[in-house]
Write a structure and sequence with these properties.
By secondary structure, the chain is an alpha/beta fold. Helices cover 41% and strands 12% of the residues. The strands form four sheets. It has a seven-stranded parallel sheet, with helices on both faces. It has a three-stranded mixed sheet with strand order 1-14-13. Helix 1 packs across helix 10 and helix 9 packs across helix 14 (429-443).
């Protein structure tokens, strides 16, 4: 076995300096209350706040979890997290955990902690939310609306409060062609708000609520409702809403590809590799608006420390610019390429991608709904009614999952780009997207060590070596013939030749765009030069032709 490319990881204390957008700074010291600090976005926001010289204290709302106290969770999630190692000397000084339960009035904060917050807090960043699409509306309402209302009531009692920043979503509108700055009133909400909320809580109106509102899931509906509710409040301090699109792995901080979430884009990747989604109906040329988590955190940390004379609400879109969002066909190509380089034992079947709705509906009925219905009937006849009901529930969950994918993958979304992320001339967006997919696969448990086979007898080519050589992008006929010859030669010489592609892409992503990269073999063999040539041939995403 030959192993190439043991590339060093980027140091976790790498500093970030990338956005061309103005970042608001002043000499006033800020004391920030941060909610959701143990979550994926919350940790990155804390990382960005710790980087700032004008933030002297960060209060972290946490709740006990199981047998863990708030202090124990703080030690495990924050102090013990390697991403915060650059701030180890002052982490305990700047950060202070506060026991809180946001579902309770005033977030369940004790009197002593309330006095502490009243004498200190100047800004609030709310990152608490439930991002489960299939959550019951009454539970989603509590997680996304009620928690915000309770936090606002608490913020009103803080005399030093200057700025409240709420994290929403770019998909708050039911219609894809309407992305106004303001949320319109939900049906029936303007009649009696108390009755509306009671109906949601008691589930008396939740069955047809989504159908009436035309929202695809409870997450986007309750996020929209939360924005509408908060805009009706008369607040004595500035208020801002940040609307991110699909938050994915970081671009640069603390290192390219950092991710600690199993939701969002990762859930999509995981459903594919687990085989839970045998087919998808999508527009292959549609674009996924993937935004790096460190960009969203940059905006949140900058907005909360912005000095504003007026208290009128403002809205910021934390999305990716259209030229830096990958099309679905591009992501599918990377998927197929990565699946080919994984060992045979870990290969899963990729789903069938269908461009026509009628074809998708028919095959879904034939391959999923009909077999499931027949299986449920058989279990019922055998007296296994519990198993039959469980099977029917699984079918209902699958139908909801298909509906979500159909909504987000088969129609375009064009957002306001007042803070759209620009990769600029110093970093390549295409490498970032490759890193995101690889990190997602690794987080989902499919890839463990980051190594991918690109030559040798164990290399997988789905339709044969000839098809692989002819379908590789960016090469002329002569080079394709040479690539095919070397691939077949390597099968007789090596068991497998592999490279840590994840680390290589991470290293390349941090280099200035247009920089000269030299691949130098370390062995005294001309065969190594052929291997380096074939490496560029086997991984066309490197764009070294």
């Amino acid at each position: 076995m030959v192993a190439i490319g043991k590339f060093c990881r980027v140091a976790t204390n790498m500093m970030v300096a990338r956005s061309k957008r103005p970042i608001y700074t002043d000499l006033i010291m800020h004391r920030i209350l941060l909610t959701g600090a143990t979550g994926f976005l919350g940790k990155m926001v804390l990382f960005k706040l710790l980087q700032r010289d004008d933030v002297e204290r960060v209060y972290l709302f946490m709740r006990p979890k199981g047998d863990q106290t708030v202090e124990e969770r703080f030690e495990q999630s924050i102090i013990g997290n390697s991403m915060f190692e650059p701030f180890a000397s002052r982490l305990r000084t700047v950060c202070r955990p506060i026991e809180a339960t946001q579902e309770l009035p005033l977030c369940g904060v004790s009197e002593s902690n309330l006095l502490l917050l009243r004498s200190s807090v100047t800004g609030v960043i709310n990152c608490v939310a439930s991002i489960r699409f299939n959550l019951a509306i009454n539970r989603a309402y509590v997680s996304n609306v009620k928690t915000l209302q309770n936090l606002l009531e608490l913020a009103k009692q803080l005399p030093l409060m200057e700025h409240f920043v709420h994290t929403s979503t770019a998909y708050v509108f039911a219609r894809k062609d309407r992305f106004d700055q303001l949320i319109t009133c939900p049906n029936g909400f303007d009649v009696d708000q108390d009755a509306y909320f009671s109906g949601i809580t008691e589930q008396s109106i939740s069955e047809d609520l989504l159908a009436q509102s035309h929202y695809p899931n409870s997450y986007t509906f309750t996020k929209s409702l939360a924005e509408y509710v908060i805009r009706q409040e008369e607040l004595p301090f500035a208020f801002s809403v940040v609307r991110p699109s699909i938050i994915t792995s970081s671009h640069l901080a603390p290192y390219p590809g950092w991710v600690e979430s199993e939701a969002g884009y990762l859930a999509y990747v995981k459903s594919i590799i687990d085989g839970g989604v045998p087919m998808l109906y999508l527009n292959r040329h549609n674009r996924l608006n993937l935004v790096p988590v460190d960009h969203v955190a940059d905006i949140l940390s900058a907005v909360v420390t912005e000095h504003r004379a007026d208290v009128s609400p403002r809205t910021y879109y934390a999305t990716a610019s259209i030229q830096h969002t990958p099309s679905l066909i591009e992501t599918l190509y990377v998927f197929r390429h990565i699946f080919r380089t994984i060992s045979k034992k870990e290969i899963r079947h990729l789903p069938l991608y269908l461009p026509f709705g009628w074809m998708f509906s028919f095959l879904l009925w034939l391959r999923d709904k009909l077999p499931r219905k027949l299986q449920a009937k058989r279990l019922t006849w055998q007296g296994k009614k519990t198993d039959a009901r469980r099977l029917q529930r699984m079918g209902s969950i699958n139908e909801q999952l298909y509906a979500q994918y159909r909504h987000f993958l088969n129609q375009p979304f064009h957002f306001h780009d007042n803070l759209a992320y620009e990769f600029g001339e110093t970093h390549r967006a295409d490498l970032y997207h490759s890193i995101v997919i690889r990190k997602s696969l690794k987080k989902a448990g499919l890839r463990h060590d980051g190594y991918e086979v690109f030559a040798g007898n164990d290399m997988i080519t789905r339709h044969g070596d000839l098809f692989f050589a002819l379908s590789t992008k960016g090469w002329n006929v002569a080079k394709r013939v040479l690539g095919l010859w070397f691939l077949r030669l390597s099968r007789h010489v090596f068991t497998k030749v592999e490279i840590n592609m994840e680390n290589l892409l991470t290293a390349l992503a941090t280099m200035p765009k247009g920089a000269t990269v030299v691949f130098a073999p370390t062995h005294k063999s001309y065969f190594d030069f052929l291997l380096l040539y074939f490496l560029c041939f086997a991984f066309p995403e490197l764009k070294i032709y």
